[in-house]
Amino acid sequence: MELQSATSGLPRPLSPGPISPTLDYAGPLSPSSGGPSHASPGRGPSPSLSPIRGPSPGPGFSGQAAFNYNQLEGRFKQLQDEREAVQKKTFTKWVNSHLSRVSCRITDLYMDLRDGRMLIKLLEVLSGERLPKPTKGRMRIHCLENVDKALQFLKEQRVHLENMGSHDIVDGNHRLTLGLIWTIILRFQIQDISVETEDNKEKKSAKDALLLWCQMKTAGYPNVNIHNFSTSWRDGMAFNALIHKHRPDLIDFDKLKKSNAHYNLQNAFNLAEQHLGLTKLLDAEDISVDHPDEKSIITYVVTYYHYFSKMKALKVEGKRIGKVLDNAIETEKMIEKYESLASDLLEWIEQTIIILNNRKFANSLVGVQQQLQAFNTYRTVEKPPKFTEKGNLEVLLFTIQSKMRANNQKVYTPREGKLISDINKAWERLEKAEHERELALRTELIRQEKLEQLARRFDRKAAMRETWLSENQRLVSQDNFGFDLQAVEAATKKHEAIETDIAAYEERVQAVVAVAKELEAESYHDIKRITARKDNVIRLWEYLLELLKARRQRLEMNLGLQRVFQEMLYIMDWMDEMKDTMKNREESLGEASKLQQFLREVDDFQSWLSRTQTAIASEDMPNTLAEAEKLLAQHEGIKNEIRNYEEDYQKMRDMGEMVTQGQTDAQYMFLRQRLQALDTGWNELHKMWENRQNLLSQSHAYQLFLRDTKQAEAFLNNQEYVLAHTEMPTTLEGAEAAIKKQEDFMTTMDANEEKISGVVDTGRRLVTDGNINAERIQEKVDSIDQRHKKNRAAANDLLTRLKDNRDLQKFLQDCQELSLWINEKMLTAQDMTYDEARNLHSKWLKHQAFMAELQSNKEWLDKIDKDGKTLMAEKPETEAMVKEKLASLKTMWEDLESTTQTKAKCLFDANKAELFTQSCADLDKWLAGLDGQLQSDDYGKDLTSVNILLKKQQILESQVELRQKEVGELQSQSQALSQEGKGSEEVDGQRISVERKFHCLQEPLKKRRENLMASREIHQFNRDVEDEILWVEERMPLATSTDHGHNLQTVQLLIKKNQTLQKEIQGHQPRYDDIFERSQHVLREDSPTAELIRQRLAELQSLWEQIKKETEKRHARLSEAHEAQQYYFDAAEAEAWMSEQELYMMSEEKAKDEQSSVAMLKKHQILEQAVEDYADTVHQLSSTSRGLVAAGHPDSERIGMRQSQVDKLYAGLKDLSEERRGKLDERFRLFQLNREVDDLEQWIAEREVVAGSHELGQDYEHVTMLQERFREFARDTGNIGQERVDTVNRQADELINTGHGDAATIAEWKDGLNEAWADLLELIDTRTQILAASFELHKFYHDAKEILNRILDKHKKLPEELGRDQNTVETLQRMHTTFEHDIQALGTQVRQLQEDAVRLQSAYAGDKADDIQKREGERRKGEVLEAWKNLLEAAEGRRVKLVDTGDKFRFFSMVRDLMLWMEDVIRLIEAQENPRDVSSVELLMNNHQGIKAEIDARNDSFTACIELGKALLARKHYASEEIKEKLLQLTDKRKDMIDKWEDRWEWLRLVLEVHQFSRDAGVAEAWLLGQEPYLSSREMGQNVDEVEKLIKRHEAFEKSAATWEERFAALERLTTMELLEVRRAQEEEEKKRQPPPTEAQPGDAAAQQREGEPVSQNGLPSDQESPRDNVEGGEVVNGVSEPSPAGSPGASRKGKASQAATLPAKTQPDAPTSQLEGFLHRKHEWEGHNKKASSRSWHNVYCVINQQEMGFYKDQKSASQGIPYHSEIPVSLKDAVCEVALDYKKKKHVFKLKITDGNEYLFQAKDDEEMNMWISAISAAMSGDKSEVTPSSHSTPAPAARAQTLPASVATATTAAESSPGKREKDKEKRFSLFSKKK
To answer: Alpha helices, DSSP H only, in 725-773?
Structure first.
């Protein structure tokens, strides 16, 4: 690196290629320090230079000289030290030049920067930013920290510091310290340099740009050839050339000599310091060396560049002025265009207004419709383009004003008459004229339509009047008066009615005439036809009046004659009636008075209720927001009225309850119905109000939504228009302007987005709440939302496209500029006119500058290429255009480089010596001039002169830097010339002289710059203070002004100006603070002007405080003035509005018909609501005025007077509004009444035609149809007509009572209407009576025929079947009962028919009575009555047969059941086992007694069965023989059963005695055996005690034996069996002694026995003796003979009557016991095999299973009383099916029962156990099993009944045993045994 640095001073060839110097710092001797030099071929190197000559590629070197290494090293060290010293001095001066701004200075660059403090201050000065505060302290760590802060700041500024740390600076490393300063210089002084050439405005950056700038500025100067920043500046000519280029007045460049380098340098440095204010960084000695330091020169030249660049800015300002002028011209053209367009538009508006104000309309409906169509064409075709033109005018004016604001020009304001406001006003007048034209056209159209309607109404009314008049003329011509007084009076009344109708009809005729006159007054186009028809109606009317008058006279004569005969009869009848009437009236007057009062109140309330309901039921819906608010207010008023009526309603309701309580009269019932109807109406009124309230609230919300929607749509329309009319600009300026405009537009969209979103949210909320207009709202919301989103997307897309277009236009403009620059440079490169030697130097310099310019602009081409590729990558659609442009540019650039290289080579070879001489001369001349400038003592008298001197100093310094490079180049050139052998001594002398002069001028140049900077700082501070004082003084009059404006606009303008002033003061505060901060620095220096500066600062501070206070006071005064002027403005607007409304309210215009009155009323309602709403404005004004007066406003008195004037004006306006409303209401109600009367009269006339019909019907169906239709007609007529008539009467009364102006006309209308209505009601009543009579007659005929047919049909349906069993018989009986019920209804109809016949005979006379009599006789002869009688007989016969059949089957069933039961009992008796002991016998006896109890329990069944059989026999039943046979079988079977029971019972008693004897005998025998040892004992005792004991013991034995005597005696008595055996032996002996008797026939004997035996009540013998039969055989049990059970039934008895003793004399009645009963849920599923049950719901019923039937009852009580559930017949369980309902899933525990007749039932039990029990019971009943299932059925026979079957002793014991089961065994032992048991 050292070798390379040493060779940097050697010359190198000038290559024709581009030069790329580096800016990296590599030490004091950098390779970049070298420069080009001229070498001469053929000569050897100089001995002094040969050691440092490196391997230069220049053509002037043929080899390398040989020096030893020590010489080379010494030379290198010397050069390095010199270069480092120069850089240190230069950098130190440069640092001081900047630190002087903060009053700091360094002396040693290496030492003073070590602590980092100065380094931080330097960076703060250069960057203008605040760095971290330095750390206090002198230790190394503190220094390192401060340097780190500085280096960190440089890194943040993107400055690359390689291999450099804070320790290097703190350690004072020379090389790195210099490198750091150089890096700072590059970053803050050189890096941002850009150069603009006068030819191509090309910009380059960094060192090559600075070199290019020097070359451009010094081009053409002799002896100046700048190609580097080293040797080119040695002679000082370059520095002088730079100064002379910009300030030729300072230097006489022609006098400078290149050889006098020192002078040239000193001259340039001094001039730059003295006149340009540039610090003298270099000395002449530093430059006048062989190799001047490049970095030092660059540092100095940069100061020239910055100074002269500021001078360049002045030229730029000139160009800007030109541009402003161009803009002004363009703006003037746009202004002319605006005024032309505005004039044309205003002219069109005025002409159109004249046309629209024309009120000549066609006098026909078709003509007006055509004019309206033409008007619509104008609005849709002609007007929209003009509206667009108006919008374009606004845009044009906005564009003009925007441009003028952008150019800081006074904004253009169109002259009076062509302002936008004037155009808007003219457009508003056009809109008003258009609106008035539309209203006039529509009014005229409505008038023509009304005239057409009026004409049609006239034709209709005229036709009706003509028809009516003709018919009444025919009616009046007839004289059918009648032949008695009643007929004549009826005719008279009819005539009077006709007269009344005709008199009332006069008004209708006059109405036709009035319509005709109205048409004539309105100039109807077909008035001739109307007049002719009117005359015809009048003629017919006059003729009818004549006929009516003549008929009246004839009728009066006939009536007078008839009245004579009837007058007395009427008087007598009248007196009788009056007596009764007076009596009844006296009684009812008191009560009737109260009732009438109550009825009036009811009528009034009902009337109010109807009116209110009608008002609430209105279907009027608001079309505007004002109407919605008005309707809501009206509806709230109705609510208040309802609240007021609530108390009256409660009182009336209580009174009604009191009046109607307990009353049954029809009128009171009707009154109760009315009260109920009022209750219903009252409740409905509240519901209707709520519904209407909800509806109106939704409508109000909808109208609010529509208002907001219109505003949102206006925003969207404007957005859509702007987006649709934006085009892509074709220039870069246009593209940027379009983007800015689009961004402003999107900002406006963002501002409006909240409003649009609010409208959308409101609409969606209304839709969610279910608004009645939800569909429309949803459509609006969707439309607005979609349009908004579409506009947002379109705006974003448009902005993207505009930015893309801007990038493209920028690229195209760059390409165009580069193309133009290349073409210009190509012309320069192609210029080859350099043959003459005199201009060769300038040509060479220019070409060098030209080549540097090309090299620097190569980056321009690369940048465009890079931009093009980026554009193609981001926007592929531009690829073709971009590629074409880039290819063209590359081709042109390659041609330019080739041409330039060729020219450079030619110039280089031309002449080298001339170039060196010229350079030395130029440098000498420049140094001489510079020295003169530096000797000046002028440092400026003011800021301007100081700045001029500083600029001159900067120019000098720049020139010095440039000349320094020239001086450095001189050495290279001299070396090159020496090598070529061209006077080396002379050349060296010239070079050394120039270098010496140049170095001598460096120090004076630096000193002069420091003096100028100090002078400028003081003058600048004074200037700033004076400017601030002047600024405050200029604005002080505005702040202290007392002009507060005379209207709202001027006050607002003054407020804005004052706010602007306050903002200016606030914005000026930093400058004010800066001045005082700088003053501290200025005042610290010892300056003679310090005291003057302090005075000016104090003055400035005082003025500043004063202006701030004055602006605050003025703001307060203007605020008060603004409040007052705002109030005056609002009050004036309110007065103007109210005055305008007064004009309307005072109008006397009256409506001509109902429609116009409605329109006027609605219009007035809107205005009235507006007046009501304006109360808020008036109140707000009042509040404002009170607030101002209370606050003590200066104009309080005037404000109070103005407010009282506004209040009076508003009160008068409200009075006028109410008065106008009353007039309009009267007019509207009159027209409404007229329409109601006309419509109602027409309606009555149409109804009279129907009511007067004579159709009475041909048969029953026809008359029924006529009656139904007429009843409906009468009901509709009565309801609708009465309501309408009442409404009209009420309206008429209201109008009359309120004092209407046309009260007489209204009364006439009312009377005529009421008369017509009364006639219609009379016709309806007559027609109703006639139809009712006809209906009764035809109904009689129809009923007679229908009843006969029904009787015959019933007779045919009577069945002959009697049933095959009990169930079918019961079913047939139920069916027959139903049948009898049915025919009972027929009987009622037959009786009604007879009554109707009698009534009709008495009601009718003549032929109809004969016809009725004939039909009644035929009925009596054989039709209805005979058929009815036959039917009754047949029904009765069948009922008797069914009863007999049922009794027969019931008897058979009872016999069958009893027979089966008796067989079971007999089997039970015979199946008993033989007993083994007493206990078994007693058990068998108890069981046998149980059988007896069961037999006794069946006594009632036997009795009932026998009685039933006897009853059937007594009434000679058709099956008597069968019944008799069954009865005999039953009796015989019962006797057999009783006998068997008695035999068994006797046998058991005998067996009991035998077993008891055996037991007692055993006990006695055991006792005897036990006593035998005692008796056989021989013990007599050994002493007295033993003997006494034995005696006592024996006495005890004797007592015991005495007690056993009775028992042994009982054993000795004969038992019953033994007695029977004795009796049987005796009977056998008697039989043996007597001969056998003759045997009789068994049958006869049996018969005789039956006949001879008396029968008891139960069918048994009455004898109570029980024979004791002997037992024929037996068994031995326990040694005792026991009778055999088999022999007992065969024993003979003396009589059968003894059986009666076994039964009680009277038993309890035998109630049938059920097998199972209880509650179940039942559902009837099927009524037949294919028919579902009509009612399939679940019912809770009480079910009873009895035998093979199942009955249903409501509860247990009903079951005990035999009352079926809903009269249902019990169902038969025979062959039925009962099973669990597995297919039914809805309920649990359900089973199904299917009956054979098709019925099917579902039953639900509580649980499965109960369900299974019922299924088992039903199954048992189906199989015929009589066993009782329920536990209650197993009842034990009563003990009393069992006791009656035993002897007295046994019965008593049995009863006791039954009553006390625990003592049974002990009682038996006491009863049957005299021995006690052995223990």
So the answer is: 732-768
In the three-class reduction of DSSP (H, G, I as helix; E, B as strand; rest coil), residue 1859 is classed as helix
Reading the block at residue 1164, the tokens are 């007035």
- Kindly report, residue by residue over 590-618, the tens digit of the pLDDT: 666 677 777 778 888 888 888 888 888 77
Give me the phi and psi of 19, to 5 degrees please. Answer: -105, 130
> 3-class SS at 1074?
helix
For 650-658, what is the mean pLDDT?
Answer: 82
The contacts of residue 146 (CB under 8 Å, 6+ apart) are 115, 116, 117, 119, 120, 134, 135
| Packing angle of the helix pair 1196-1251, 1154-1190 (nearest 10 deg) | 160
- Which amino acid, residue 1153? D
Query: Mean pLDDT score of the chain, rounded to an integer?
Result: 77
Q: Is 1744 helix (H, G, I), strand (E, B) or coil?
A: strand
Q: 1405 vs 1255, 1336, 1408, 1409, CA distance in Å?
A: 21, 15, 6, 5
**pLDDT higher for 122 or 836?**
122
- Helix and strand tally (H, E) in the chain? 48, 9
Query: Do 1749 and 1818 touch, CB atoms closer than 8 A?
Result: no
With H, G, I as helix, E, B as strand and everything else as coil, classify residue 1803. Answer: strand
Q: Give CA–CA dist 954/1126, Å, rounded.
A: 62
Counting Cβ atoms within 10 Å, is residue 874 exposed (0-12), middle (13-18) or buried (19+)?
exposed
Q: List, for residues 111-160, the tens digit of each pLDDT value.
A: 888 888 888 888 888 888 888 888 877 788 788 888 888 888 888 877 87
| Helix, strand, coil percent content, the chain, rounded in steps of 5 | 75, 5, 20
Mean pLDDT check: name the lowest of 16-30, 593-607, 1415-1429: 16-30
Q: 591 CB contacts (<8 Å, ≥6 apart)?
A: none
* DSSP three-state, residue 1640: coil
C-alpha 1170/C-alpha 57 separation (Å) is 102
The CA distance from 1276 to 1264, in Å, is 18
The whole-model pTM stands at 0.31
Those residues whose C-beta lies under 8 Å from the C-beta of residue 1411, and which sit 6 or more positions away, are none
Please tell me whether residue 1011 adopts helix, strand or coil conformation: helix
Say which DSSP state 1777 is in: E
For residue 12, give the H/E element and its range. Answer: none
User: CA 843, 849, 854, 860 torsion: positive or negative?
Assistant: negative
Distance CA 1709, CA 1694 (A): 32
Q: What is the pLDDT of residue 1087?
A: 63
Residue 953, beta-bridge partner list: 276
Tokens of 1057: 């100006």
- Mean pLDDT within 979-1004: 75
Instruction: Write the Ramachandran bin of 1762: left for phi over 0, alpha for psi from -120 to 50, otherwise beta.
Output: left
CB 1803 within 8 A of CB 1722: yes
Please name which of 1701, 1687, 1677 lies closest in space to residue 1843, comparing C-alpha atoms.
1701
Give the phi and the psi of residue 407 in degrees, each rounded to 5. -95, 10
Note whether 1205 and 1277 are within 8 A (CB).
Answer: no
Q: Using alpha carbons only, how large is the chain's radius of gyration in Å?
A: 73
Which residues partner with 1597 through β-bridges? none
Q: Per-residue pLDDT averaged across 250-272, rounded? A: 86
Q: Which helix (H) or strand (E) holds 167?
A: helix 166-170
Q: Rounded distance, CA 1421 to CA 1427, Å?
A: 10
Q: How far apart, in whole angstroms, are the C-alpha atoms of residue 109 and residue 180?
A: 11
Dist CA 1318 CA 1251 (whole Å) = 13
Label the pairing between strands 1790-1794 and 1771-1772: unpaired
Structure tokens that stand for 1262 in this block: 């026809």
pLDDT of residue 71: 58
Q: How many other C-beta atoms can be found within 10 angstroms of the C-beta atom of residue 1863?
A: 12
841 in Cβ contact with 912 (< 8 Å)? no
How far is residue 1014's CA from residue 1211's CA, in Å, rounded to a whole number? Answer: 81
